[in-house]
Target: ATP synthase complex subunit 8
Amino acid sequence: MPQLNPNPWFFIMLTSWLTFSMIIQPKLLTFVSTNPPSNKTPSTNPNTTPWTWPWT
Model:
């Protein structure tokens, strides 16, 4: 059964994983995020009321 022979498939997986982690990933990480996180503190609404569930 050729499906159980890991010899060619392991090499393909290893090559593709190394290609991604060594070449593609560093190139993608150099891009600046288009939506950087802000330093604003989230505002809380003090006038909140609890939800009334119909089964309680």
User: Anything to note?
Assistant: The chain has a mean pLDDT of 80. DSSP finds one helix and no strands in the chain. The two ends are 60 Å apart (CA to CA).
